[in-house]
Write a structure and sequence with these properties.
This protein is of the alpha/beta class. Helix content is 28%, strand content 20%.
């Protein structure tokens, strides 16, 4: 049966899917370039839970861009500054949510199983969290794409070995990722604030990773930062914590840090990184709709996700 989507032209009509793309329940019928998968889990949020609601809120906010979700291929979006159209012809599908558990280990198993199945369809997975602990089980499914570079946009390193005795939390996904044999390097951009420890910093550097602070981006400029990156990233996975952006534009997150990236800086970074490698998957995490009553954060998250997807299909 051919996949169709509902007739729901106005943003507030219809059941919310990402950019009004067709919802595909049976993945045997999924034929798309990009498949969006929600992971509504925040069991590792240690301070202000609520990002379990993000996949639903992000889908709702994405209805503004419903023309991008046409089943036969996206109409794309026009970038006035660059005088070009992005994402034209890209086929989006919404694959629903992982049916998460209240048990953390079981949830990791469910995420691994779902993303593995989704990758077998040939679509690039775009995963909407959820807290940042979800990234590690997602990354575990990319062994066939190795050696893999991980590009992380985040205010924090998330590189602790343990947190309160736990090896798997939203403080440690990239320490665990480093231990996967196929991860080549982790490049973190936007780090700042007083939460990341000197031990995390030094251990990450000693493991061959690259750390670029938000201050470096601001002082040196995006072009200079991009020049400091490897010229050929090869296959890379992109993980975007919304707290990588400044809280003035993305206040709805558990651990906001002042002096974050602007949207312009983030967009230029994404496009520059996209020109240096081939993105094989991405996630967007830590949006907490409860903490932003103006709903600005989820709207910014949608646009950041769309910009990231576009870089994968840049001609």
């Amino acid at each position: 049966m051919p996949i169709t989507r509902q007739n729901a032209s106005l943003p507030h009509t219809g059941i919310a899917t990402f950019c009004k793309a067709a919802y595909v329940h049976d993945w045997n019928n999924l034929s798309a370039d990009v498949a969006v998968l929600g992971v509504p889990y925040d069991g590792m949020a240690s301070m202000r839970p609520g990002c379990r609601q993000a996949p639903r809120a992000i889908r709702d906010a994405s209805a503004r861009f419903g023309w991008l979700g046409k089943t036969e291929g996206s109409a794309g979006f026009f970038d006035l500054a660059g005088n070009r159209t992005w994402m034209k012809g890209v086929r989006l599908a919404d694959a629903g949510d992982v049916d998460v558990s209240l048990d953390a280990e079981r949830t990791r198993e469910l995420i691994r199983s779902a993303v593995s199945e989704l990758r077998r369809t040939g679509a690039m997975p775009v995963v909407l969290g959820g807290d940042h602990s979800i990234t590690f089980p997602v990354l575990q499914t990319f062994e066939s794409s190795g050696p893999l570079t991980v590009v992380l946009i985040d205010a924090h390193l998330d590189y602790r070995d343990t947190f309160l005795g736990l090896r798997f939390s939203n403080n440690s996904p990239f320490r665990r990722a480093h231990e996967l044999g196929f991860i080549k390097q982790i490049i973190t951009v936007g780090v700042r604030g007083i939460k990341s420890t000197d031990q995390e910093y030094r251990e990450s550097l000693s493991h061959g990773n690259l750390i670029i602070s938000a201050e470096q981006v601001r002082d040196q400029g995006v072009a200079s930062v991009l020049e400091s990156l490897p010229t050929d990233l090869g296959n890379y996975y992109l993980s975007m914590d919304i707290d990588g952006l400044d809280p003035s534009i993305a206040p709805g997150t558990e651990s906001p840090e002042a002096e974050g990236l602007t949207f312009t800086e983030a967009k230029r970074l994404l496009r520059g990184i996209g020109a240096r490698g081939r993105m094989v998957g991405l996630d967007l995490v830590e949006v907490n709709p409860y903490l932003d009553h103006a709903e600005l954060t989820q709207h910014i998250a949608v646009q950041l996700t769309i910009e990231a997807i576009a870089t994968r299909f840049a001609a």
